[in-house]
Amino acid sequence: MSRRGSVLRAEEEPVLPTEVDPLLNFKEWEHDLKRSSGRGRCAESIALHGTKKHYCCCKCCTKRVLVLSVILSFLLVAAGGLIFYFVILPRLHSYNPIGPIDNRTAPGIPGNLTFVDTTAISTQMHWGRPANHGSEILGYDVQVRNGSDRHYAPVPACRSDDPTLSCGVGGLLGNTSYCFHARAVNSIGRGNFSTDACLRTLPAGEPTAPAGMAPAETTASEIAVRWEGSRGEGAPIAYYELQMRQGNATVTATTRTSALAPAPAAAAGASFATIYKGPELHASATELQAGTQYTFRVRAANAAKLVGKWGAEQTFHTNVATDAKVPAVPRELTGESSDSSHEVLLRWVAPVSDGGAQLLAYHLEMAVGRGGAPAVVFSGFAEQFEKHALLANTTYCFRVCAANSVGLGPYSAQTCVVTMPLQPPAAPGAPLLTAASPSQISIAWAAPPAAAAAAAVFAPILEYQVERNDWWDEAPLATVWNGTALQYTSDGLLPAARYQFRVRARNRAGWGNYSDSRTFGTDHFGACGNPNDMGIFRKTKATMKSSIQHCLIKCVFSGPSCATDCIVGALGWTHACANCWTEEGLCTEKYCIGPCIVPSSSKCAACSKENCFPDCVKCSGVPMWAYPK
Question: Does pTM surpass 0.85?
């Protein structure tokens, strides 16, 4: 009998030996198991022979274990994912120092740099508002270079903390080319510079004549004079030339000022002679005769080698040799309130005698109300002064004294003036175009003149009001904006249309006058966004829907070209514009044939608006709000 016969008989269950021969062929044992008669026998074999338990279990239960293992693994992964998403991740996020992602970036590029009011030495710049990219524009950096140079320098008048879309640039040279560029600044950083915009200033002219000549100090042998600077008119001032001529009049301590000749005859053999040539605004004449009048004049020359005209001649005198006194009281002090409610003009006449020493200055004091404490508000050689920044409908009292090299003379009696009631502001500057697109127009304007003066402290501009006409409805000017800024952007406009603007300002006294009106146009856009088609669009807006529908129905079997030609003939549009509406009609036939069995129904309008109007807007350039209802 073979070894197999001793281990397994045909009518018995497979029997596993208690001690398995390591050399037993595993394949033979597996074959014997396959001959067994089912799960019960496998289980019985397992009970009898623990040595083969692992093999028999895996062989009998593989599919069930596999399915259960997959299900259990899926449930464990799902549970772990839920715990991570709803428990762990929120805790990590709450302690995340970085926080949410910030999509803000530096601003876009300013556009359309333009120049107005250009002179030999200055210009006014304007530019279009760039995209802020999620952060408010704080200001603009503006740089300038000479047209022949590649190195830029900042423009101090244009500040990075001023969001105004304009800037005044001064200190330029005449007949010179300059190029400017600008960039915007927000809290994230600075954007890119715009492309260069260049201009050439006007040619330089003769410098203006110096003004305001006055004595600075006098003695018996010396007169020091001063004057105000000239404008170079396109070139810097190179020097001033001061000339002097001796008069034939003499002065004593009792000489009346009325007897002093404003332009005395020249002394015998005397003529104007240059006593100073240089850049300063003051000079002295020395070694003069006591108690004698001298006449002075001054002119300027600029770096362009142009010499200006002489300023007004002024006559001063040296002090008397002895017994000079303080001047007498100035006379005829008067005050007049101006129309601005915040200004008073004071005038007076020279004292009877200057005490034998040249008058050097007048000192004007002001008090609020009768009996108020006086304070000096003017010291100068002029015999009039305009006081600004006063309160409306308020009493102010003034007095004046004269001074010479000896000292101050007595004060005059008080003169009191009541300012006028508060007045509305003057008209702002006319609007200027700063940017335009097919649907927007941006404008800017200058503040009323009084708002730039010290009076604005007491009557500040509270708001501006912009009026604009309605091109589409042909309506007159009407209010479209109120605010405190000096610029405004009007949106929701139609392409290739002309709009008129004007602006006024309000203070505590009410609204002032309107500025001059200005008309600006939007950009062309799309097949219909041109003056011809938009004009027809406005003219036929009440009938064009029925005309378009008639052409679409008429040409339903003839093709798109028939409908386009029909629309052109009925309305006068260009073929490109008419074709947009043909395509809109074909779209309606394709997607809205059911709802549009009744073309005037609300369901038809809603279907066309959802499915067809967006493409028609892109094609025509006309916004959806202007479509026929």
Answer: no
